[in-house]
Amino acid sequence: MSIGGSTIEAELAKLSPPQAVPAIGDYEYQARLDKARRLTRDLGAKALLVGAGASLRYFAGVPWGASERLVAMLLPVEGEPLIICPYFERGSLEADLKIPAELRLWQEDESPHALIHAAMQDLGGGVLAVDPAISFEMVSRLMRETGLEVREASAVINGCRMYKSEAELALMQQAKSMTETVHRATARILTEGIATTEVINFIEAAHRRMGAAGNSFVIVQFAQATAYPHGLPGVQTLKENDLVLIDTGCHVQGYTSDITRTYVYGQATAEQQRIWNIEKEAQAAAFAAVEVGKPCESVDYAARAILEKHGLGPDYQLPGTPHRTGHGIGLSIHEPAYLVRGEKTPLMPGMCFSNEPMIVVPERFGIRLEDHMYVTEDGAKWFTEPQAAIDRL
């Protein structure tokens, strides 16, 4: 059995970091900027404004989150990028920045929007395409203070980030393989009476032993709490024959994993086994439905067809699947495109998705099997192999 029978100390002692995957190189950063310029020009804009967050990391290597102070890259369709940043952050910025760029710095009593306006004037004016992740408050102030015409830039941001390169796929593979290893170790430490908090702490320590900076997130649920997709508050303790649902991930150079396993500590009931089998069949159907050129929604339809065949659903009715089949993943844990009805984006090579058509039996239990896949010319490929059975990983 791969569930129970070991100890926290023994499992942590077995873990060590894998060989590091190479970081994103200078050539790839330049290729990203060039593609963004082309897409910005196609949008009818003169420049692209990218705020702090996952997209600034993607284009410039700066791993900062957004705050109340504007930090952004202004990328003209012709010319070199500019970085708008508080003056006192200059040293930190220069240490993180991975691309050649002119720095335009502002003091605390100055407006960063004036720097953006001046840069646009230098370009001869025109439309500014704005990263949709920049806060509404910041964009409103920018428009109010400068009078600039702005255009929402999802087509540019998503047009770059949705399609992963070989280097990105390698980083994502490492993150997912690390988390899969942590899942297997976690199953082995389970014992009757263990608390969800103890399991959460172990997963944090295990990810650190694997070389990550701890968990990017973690959900641990036992028994009835598994019926809630994102869990219930409070501490639970494990009992014989409880279902266990664990959803967790980590980051490798910003790229994320997000894997869920559901299994039984002891003996599954006939109904739990039946639903687990349907979940596995639905996950496999979603995987098999991936075909270049088909809309993303076709994958969701394939998974739901399995549920309906077995008398579950239909649509979002319960017992059944209460949410989409999957989401895009990369530098953000949830990012476009989405495997959901109405998503017409064509499946294309390099796109990466979770595959998790969770089945919920209200107030009783839930089964979620979540692995990730990427699109190739020949269909989908798994980053991690799906779980084998309800009583083993």
Automatic annotation (TrEMBL):
Molecular-function annotations in GO: metal ion binding; metallopeptidase activity
**Could you tell me the keywords of this UniProt record?**
Hydrolase, Metal-binding, Metalloprotease, Protease
InterPro entries tied to this protein: Creatin/AminoP/Spt16_N, Creatinase/aminopeptidase-like, Creatinase_N, Pept_M24, Peptidase_M24B, Peptidase_M24B_aminopep-P_CS
Cross-referenced Pfam families, in alphabetical order? Creatinase_N, Peptidase_M24
Which PROSITE patterns does the annotation name?
PROLINE_PEPTIDASE
Transmembrane feature ranges: none
The source's superkingdom equals Bacteria
Q: Which residues form the Peptidase M24 domain?
A: 171-377
- BP-aspect Gene Ontology terms: proteolysis
Where in the numbering of this chain does the Creatinase N-terminal domain appear? 32-162
**What family does this belong to?**
Belongs to the peptidase M24B family.
Q: Per its UniProt record, what PANTHER family does this chain match?
A: AMINOPEPTIDASE, AMINOPEPTIDASE YPDF
This protein's name: Peptidase M24
- Provide the species name: Asticcacaulis excentricus (strain ATCC 15261 / DSM 4724 / KCTC 12464 / NCIMB 9791 / VKM B-1370 / CB 48)
